């Protein structure tokens, strides 16, 4: 729903000061793993709309920074899952608080009834709209 440039700008603001590995490129990997839990690079790529090699490159940066780990898939010992470390969860918590703050600040300037109606409408759109999966 956001233009690529808008997303990039937002992600840059949300990740500011969280370390060299956490930036607008790695934000989707962190956010995606926080939403879905441990996933293979291929599964995560589908979830966050990147290709598998892009996810793997970003995951390597996050792993080197201690924010992500690779672990054996309990269902298939040949496969590897990407999982957030406690530090990765902490980084996601900071980013989510920042995002919530930005949303709250924006809606605070709206007339109360308008902000509440928007929130209800957006929730309904997300739950019932064209972006819901099978």
Helices, strands, pairings?
Elements: H1 4-15, H2 27-36, H3 41-48, H4 52-64, E1 68-73, E2 76-84, H5 86-108, H6 112-128
Antiparallel strand pairs: 1-2
Helix pairs in contact: 2-3, 3-4
What report would you give on this structure?
With 134 residues, this protein is mainly alpha-helical. The protein has a two-stranded antiparallel ribbon with strand order 1-2. A hairpin with a 2-residue loop joins β1 and β2. The mean pLDDT is 90.
Short recap of the structure:
This protein has 134 residues and is mostly helical. Helix content is 62%, strand content 11%. The chain has helices spanning 4-15, 27-36, 41-48, 52-64, 86-108, 112-128, and strands spanning 68-73, 76-84.
Strand coverage percent: 5-15%
Give the N-terminus to C-terminus distance in angstroms: 19 Å
Strands of the largest sheet, in order across it? 1-2
Helix coverage percent of residues?
55-70%
Rg, nearest Å: 17 Å
Instruction: Tally the beta strands.
Output: 2
| Unreliable stretches covering 5 or more consecutive residues | none
Compute the number of helices.
Answer: 6
| Gross geometry | globular
Task: Describe the largest sheet.
Answer: 2 strands, antiparallel
Give the SSE order as H and E letters: HHHHEEHH
The structure class reads: mainly alpha
Average pLDDT confidence is: 90
């Amino acid at each position: 729903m956001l233009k690529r440039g808008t997303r990039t700008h937002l992600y840059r603001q949300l990740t500011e000061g969280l370390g060299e590995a956490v930036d607008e490129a790695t934000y989707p990997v962190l956010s995606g793993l926080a939403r879905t839990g441990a996933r293979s690079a291929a599964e995560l790529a589908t979830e966050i709309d990147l290709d598998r090699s892009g996810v793997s490159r970003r995951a390597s940066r996050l792993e080197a920074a201690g924010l992500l780990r690779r672990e054996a898939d309990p269902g298939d010992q040949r496969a590897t899952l990407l999982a957030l470390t406690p530090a990765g969860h902490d980084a996601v918590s900071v980013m989510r608080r920042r995002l919530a703050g930005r949303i709250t600040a924006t809606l605070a300037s709206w007339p109360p009834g308008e902000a509440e109606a928007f929130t209800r409408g957006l929730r309904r759109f997300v739950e019932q709209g064209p972006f819901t999966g099978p």
